[in-house]
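Hello,

I think I submitted the coenzyme A job twice by accident. Can you confirm which output corresponds to this input? Input:
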Amino acid sequence: MQVEINSITVNDVAYKDVWYLREEVLRKPLGLSLKNEDLSRDVLNTIFTATINNKIIGCVFLQPITEKEIQLRAMAVYSNWQQHGIGKALVVAAEEYAKINGYNLIILHARKVAIGFYEKMGYMPYVNEFIEVGIPHFMMKKDLIKERLK
Ligand SMILES: CC(C)(COP(=O)(O)OP(=O)(O)OC[C@H]1O[C@@H](n2cnc3c(N)ncnc32)[C@H](O)[C@@H]1OP(=O)(O)O)[C@@H](O)C(=O)NCCC(=O)NCCS
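Support: Only one job matched these inputs. Its output is below.
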């Protein structure tokens, strides 16, 4: 299985496939649609895609918050490809980008069901439960300075 990790922006033709992936994995199961959301902040994001046989099967977005802090969001892998290391490969690529570009901290809003995944990736919860897209989430973070010292 050859997985390719690439980075794109909203201007790339692949953004359409990423939109569809997010819709299928992150919104439809909740009875929601991206069509009802303002996606204008996507333009600020670096988008990482995982591709197998020319099909995008996973994505994650990085959105700068401050000069030193960046948010990981829109983490999704098609269900038939989950548990194959795709999510991990995307997070590793996003973290590499964050480090190279001088960010010290990655934050994210973790769905309760995904907390175990992020913990495996070295993230720590730091804000108690809150509701987003109608379901429980926790704020999680990873200190990249500590990572560099490891
Ligand atoms: C969460 C998600 C992105 C993980 O991607 P994935 O490709 O399945 O994860 P990986 O296969 O890279 O898993 C890496 C490790 O995390 C573990 N893991 C994966 N999902 C997990 C979960 N939900 N809870 C606990 N551990 C999990 C894997 O078992 C693996 O452990 P290992 O290294 O000991 O073998 C994917 O399941 C997904 O898209 N879920 C639906 C959407 C979603 O919840 N997105 C997150 C929104 S905050």
